[in-house]
């Protein structure tokens, strides 16, 4: 058994996969249920309206979305900024354009900041 400190409250607990204690897991689950119920009643609400209507912070709501715990299929106004460029997105950490650009860079074997350099790998032969 691994003993760890909860990353949210700091309490010591037996770690069973997640890095938060059972009390914080319960708290997060209750917040998610509250957010989902609010979105069922207000499908066109944005993140700020949901935060005000549920007393769950903007940052917590965004983290639930980024972690994939809150899906926004029927909520078109629930957007937050891409971590790279700031463009509004509804899932993950990056917008679709940044994700494509980073994937393209990985396929070419270069870092995103190496755009001006020659792409690809070179052998010694």
Note the main attributes of this structure:
two-stranded antiparallel ribbon; mainly alpha; 4 helices; flat; two-stranded antiparallel sheet; 10% strand; 125 residues
> Helicity, in percent?
25-40%
Give the domain tally: 1
Please write the string of helix (H) and strand (E) elements: EEHHHEEH
Strand order of the largest sheet: 1-2
Please outline the major beta sheet.
2 strands, antiparallel
pLDDT < 50 runs, ≥5 residues: none
Label the structural class.
Answer: mainly alpha
N-to-C span: 52 Å
Number of helices: 4
Rounded to an integer in angstroms, the radius of gyration calculated over CA atoms is 20 Å
Number of strands: 4
Shape: flat
Residue fraction in strands:
5-15%
Mean pLDDT: 86
InterPro entries: Flagellar_operon_YvyF
Protein name: Flagellar operon protein TIGR03826
Organism: Alicyclobacillus mali (ex Roth et al. 2021)
Structure description:
InterPro entries: Flagellar_operon_YvyF. This is Flagellar operon protein TIGR03826. The chain is mainly α and 125 residues long. The protein has one domain. It has helices at residues 22-41, 47-54, 58-66, 96-107; strands spanning 2-5, 12-15, 80-81, 88-89. The strands form two sheets. The protein has a two-stranded antiparallel ribbon with strand order 1-2. Strands 3-4 form a two-stranded antiparallel sheet. Helix 1 crosses helix 2 (47-54). It starts with a strand and ends in an 18-residue tail after the last helix.
């Amino acid at each position: 058994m691994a003993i760890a400190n909860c990353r949210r409250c700091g309490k010591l607990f037996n770690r069973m996969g997640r890095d938060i204690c059972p009390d914080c897991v319960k708290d997060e689950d209750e917040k998610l249920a509250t957010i989902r119920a609010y979105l069922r009643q207000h499908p066109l609400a944005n993140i700020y309206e949901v935060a005000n209507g549920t007393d769950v912070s903007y940052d917590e709501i965004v983290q639930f979305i980024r972690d994939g715990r809150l899906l926004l299929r029927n909520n078109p106004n629930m957007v937050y900024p891409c971590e790279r460029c700031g463009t509004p997105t509804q899932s993950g950490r990056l917008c679709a354009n940044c994700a494509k650009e980073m994937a393209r860079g990985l396929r070419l074997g270069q870092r995103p900041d190496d755009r001006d350099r020659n792409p690809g790998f070179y052998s010694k032969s």
